[in-house]
Amino acid sequence: MLKIIFGEIENAVYHPPTYFDHQYEDAWITDPLSIAMIREIDRSEVVSAHLIESPVLGAISPKEISGGVKTLMLMAFDDSGKVFNASLCGDNCAKWIINIAARKDLTINLHHVLDFSSVGDFDALMLNTNRMVHGYREYLEEAICIKER
């Protein structure tokens, strides 16, 4: 289940890419979910746990993938219970957030209204108001009300 909380919250990881660089495990990089996210979002191919081929940057390490993918991988694989700032994710990460939330309970922190319009149907609990939303329209209405407070 996806849970979303807007605004500053205590103990959230505000800059997930930095946290990722010091916490990721090699197995995360070669997991099929990560391979798919890296391929789609960064347009890059995982060669091994230590080598990714980017069409723009050439051969890179996992520390050089995008902040959005790093944040998604933390959401998928970090079991510390930490809440990650998903505002560093682009809108192209929205479907992956929904995918991860279908696999496990996931709480994310947002500082902007992430565009979930391309995702289709989804459910999320908006923690600021404790309201369950069903789909993009309800999410958007609730998010705008929260942001206006």
Defining key terms:
alpha/beta, 5-stranded mixed sheet
Q: Could you explain the architecture of this structure?
A:
It is a single chain. The protein is an alpha/beta fold. It has helices spanning 16-23, 26-30, 32-41, 67-77, 94-103, 136-148, and strands at 2-6, 45-48, 51-54, 58-60, 84-85, 106-110, 123-126, 131-134. Strands 5-6-1-7-8 form a 5-stranded mixed beta sheet. Strands 2-3-4 form a 3-stranded antiparallel beta sheet, with helices on one face. The protein is globular, with a radius of gyration of 15 Å.
End-to-end span in angstroms?
Answer: 25 Å
Which runs of at least 5 residues are low in confidence (pLDDT < 50)? none
Q: How many helical elements?
A: 6
- What general outline do the C-alpha atoms trace? globular
Secondary structure layout:
Elements: E1 2-6, H1 16-23, H2 26-30, H3 32-41, E2 45-48, E3 51-54, E4 58-60, H4 67-77, E5 84-85, H5 94-103, E6 106-110, E7 123-126, E8 131-134, H6 136-148
Parallel strand pairs: 1-6, 1-7, 5-6
Antiparallel strand pairs: 2-3, 3-4, 7-8
Helix pairs in contact: 1-4, 3-4
